[in-house]
Design a protein that fits this description.
heterotrimer, A mainly alpha (209), B mainly alpha (247), C mainly alpha (57), B: mainly alpha, Four Helix Bundle (Hemerythrin (Met), subunit A), C: mainly alpha
Chain lengths: 209, 247, 57
């Protein structure tokens, strides 16, 4: 079920992540001060882009080889399949990024005291990206121009997570307590985790029913 | 009462009945608009701080209110269509989106034109402006999804899910942006939060808001009628209607 | 006459106030005209499509 079809599925998001961060670093002039201030933002935008661009793999291969209809017809609960796919997406896309963040933090001069908060926000926030992304992939699966359409639809929904996470890490870098913010991110995660699978299965049924 | 709901939830009765409503709603809207404009542009005194530029409020605030209200209607209509399969609901939802997007655009544009003389800048990442911008993206995304799906019934149901996801997000977006904004800007006293707004300034504002409501009511019916025609084009009554109009 | 002028002048803010109102009215009117035109076009093209029964929807 995990669907690790090729090595490249695991490596691509990771390489992409490094490239994005490099691009930002170079574009910002690679000055330590500028980079340090933008560090959490750069890493988070990179995480967001990597997650968005790999959402395609969640349902498209299954649509292509007819598995998706089989899932709908099968006796197995569609919800379980959807949850498995979401977890698979997160494990293949974001989990490696969280590990890579340790190294990337160095590349952008992330302050020491901000590293753990950054990892915490990534840990709480990236599953939300996979969860909400799943709903929208299900809504747009198989449509003409679905790639761009998906990105257009999904980015507004990602903005709260982005804003909140980056601001939290910034706060931590300034030495402020961030427990409240982390609870809020946790709350969003719980909300997404409870509602997204339901919305995703509904969307699949609507599109393929 | 539910009989009315069932009856007018169905395409043809709705199409026939709405024809009567549209002119009346439009007429009321026009009257309110004239009253509001006279009240706002002529009768209301100028603001002691902002001078004459504050008069933009009479189109800016009603637009912003409508942009949010219409989204709620769109999501509710979508939900009704999704749960109870009411065809008219689907039509109203689809018809509302361009109107909601228009009002959101107007809120942003007039806000920008108001902001320039007031704050000296066309744009600021203020909590409200940012939330409103995101709302515009949500509307445009909804419209894009509707256009991308060929089958109207599927499009309506998919749109309903999208709108509902958006509805859940709107308070989250608003809260996040507000928290983020106050974090970065420090406590700011928004220019709109006047200590108390004088009645002579408030009344035209409320009249304009009401006028916009009637505008929306009239035009959404107008648009929904067209959506109904499109989605029911294969049915007998539509063919008959076309025959009638030709003959 | 001067009071009309001062009305149009809007205390110097005319280039902000009048475009705001103008834009609003343009958008509101476009939103009325477009659906009306679309409905008319529907009735025109519908008849034509009926003449080609082979076109399934």
């Amino acid at each position: 079920m995990i669907g690790l079809r090729q090595r490249s599925e695991l490596v691509n998001p990771l390489v992409f992540f490094f490239i994005i961060v490099t691009l930002f670093a170079l574009a910002l002039g690679a000055h330590e001060e500028t980079l340090r201030q933008s560090a959490p933002a750069v890493i988070w935008v990179a995480a967001l882009l990597a997650s968005t661009l790999s959402l395609d793999t969640m349902f498209h291969p299954d649509l292509d080889d007819g598995c998706l209809e089989q899932f709908l017809l099968s006796h197995q609960s569609l919800t379980i399949i959807v949850v498995a796919k979401i977890m698979a997406h997160w494990l293949l896309t974001s989990a490696p990024l969280i590990v890579a963040a340790l190294f990337l933090g160095l590349m952008v001069y992330l302050p020491q005291n901000a590293m753990f908060p950054l990892l915490a926000t990534l840990l709480l926030g990236t599953p939300v990206l996979s969860l909400v992304g799943a709903i929208l992939v299900a809504l747009t699966v198989g449509l003409r121009g679905s790639g761009i359409l998906l990105t257009l639809l999904i980015l507004p929904l990602y903005i709260p997570v982005l804003i909140f996470s980056v601001a939290t890490v910034d706060n931590a870098a300034k030495g402020l307590a961030i427990t409240g913010e982390l609870y809020f991110l946790g709350a969003i995660l719980v909300l997404a985790a409870t509602l997204a699978p339901l919305a995703t299965t509904s969307s699949l049924r609507i599109r393929l029913g | 009462m539910f009989e009315y709901f069932y009856k007018y939830g169905s395409p043809k009765p709705f199409y026939d009945l709405s024809k009567l409503f549209v002119p009346w709603l439009g007429g009321i809207c026009l009257v309110l608009l004239i009253a509001g404009l006279i009240g706002g542009l002529v009768l209301a005194p100028q603001d002691y701080q902002q001078g004459e530029s504050f008069r933009i409020i009479y189109v800016h605030v009603p637009s912003a209110w409508m942009s949010l209200f219409i989204y709620m209607v769109m999501a509710s209509a979508g939900a009704t269509g999704l749960i109870w399969k009411v065809k008219v609901s689907d039509a109203v939802a689809r018809a509302s989106a361009p109107l909601g997007a228009s009002f959101t655009f107007l809120a942003l544009a007039t806000g920008s034109l108001w902001g320039k003389p007031m704050w000296g800048t066309w744009w600021v990442w203020d909590a409200r402006l940012t939330s409103e911008l995101i709302l515009l993206f949500l509307y445009l995304g909804y419209m894009a999804l509707q256009t991308a799906i060929d089958d109207r019934r599927t499009a309506a149901r998919a749109g309903a899910i999208l709108a509902l996801v958006g509805v859940v997000n709107i308070p989250i977006i608003h809260y996040s942006v507000e928290w983020w904004h106050t974090l970065h800007q420090g406590p700011t006293i928004t220019k709109l939060d006047a200590p108390s707004i004088h009645t002579s300034m408030l009344v035209p504002l409320l009249i304009m808001a009401l006028a916009f409501m009637f505008y929306y009511a009239a035009v959404v019916l107008l648009r929904a009628r067209y959506e109904i025609l499109e989605s029911e084009r294969n049915s007998a009554w539509v063919s008959e209607l076309v025959e009638q109009r030709r003959g | 006459m001067s009071s009309l002028q001062s009305f149009l002048h809007m205390g110097g803010y005319a280039i902000y106030v009048w475009p705001s109102y103008g834009l609003t009215f343009i958008v509101l009117i476009i939103n009325i005209i477009l659906p009306l035109k679309r409905e008319n076009r529907f009735f025109k093209t519908f008849t034509e499509r009926k003449k080609r029964p082979g076109k399934a929807q």
